[in-house]
Specification:
Length: 202
């Protein structure tokens, strides 16, 4: 549904779609929709300072931003064409369930992550669809991940390592635990989640 909505809005391969969300299921939906639309996944943490968000937006030039009402209200002068998943679900595309057919090249950009900016200026790192596919498939095979596995994702989704947790779970048919940041920072909650998981990337 969200992928079809993106395509209807004119999103094409190499177009950047920013994702500025709190950790949760919505990140998974946004990531898969952007990939199915053949576009570029551009995660931006709402915890970033305003100046950093502004710099990333100015540099990456996203076509639109998938976000949440609270975040949009906080950064409405910065985020480009913000929309919530709730708004997309209320559109006419909510009844479409098939995967869109999109032509992409192995060398189209799959995602962009920005460095921590140790030099003072965050730099965007682009990864191609081919490299992304190889990385996820190699990780799945290397760790023998299967439908029996439950992965716990604790990395901030603005870090590239978060895609290891997210995408290997999907490709192996396993389960995924996504914790809110406050539970990750709480030792008791984190320990309980680790007990439920078979795969934890720390």
């Amino acid at each position: 549904q969200t992928a079809h909505w993106l395509l209807a809005k004119g999103i094409n391969p190499e177009d950047r779609v920013a994702v500025c969300l709190k950790p949760g299921l919505e990140i998974v939906i946004a990531l898969l929709a952007i990939q199915k639309a053949g576009a570029v996944y551009l995660p931006i943490s709402p915890e970033y300072p305003i100046a950093r968000i502004q710099r990333i937006v100015d540099d990456a030039q996203p076509k639109l931003t998938i976000s949440q009402d609270e975040i949009i209200n906080n950064f409405q002068k910065i985020l480009v064409s913000p929309v919530t998943l709730e708004q997309i679900c209320q559109s006419s595309y909510s009844s479409i369930w098939d995967n869109p057919l999109v032509e992409t090249s192995d060398y189209n950009t799959a995602y962009i992550f920005y460095t921590s900016g140790t030099t003072g200026v965050p730099k965007g790192i682009t990864i191609s669809q081919k490299s992304f596919s190889y990385y996820i498939c190699a990780a799945k095979d290397c760790f023998s991940l299967s439908q029996q596995d439950t992965a716990l994702t604790i990395a901030k989704y603005s870090f590239s390592i978060s895609l290891f947790d997210l995408m290997t779970s999907f490709c192996s048919g396993g389960r995924l635990i996504i914790l809110p940041r406050e539970e990750i920072m709480d030792f008791g909650s984190l320990a309980m989640a680790i007990e439920r998981a078979t795969v934890v990337h720390i």
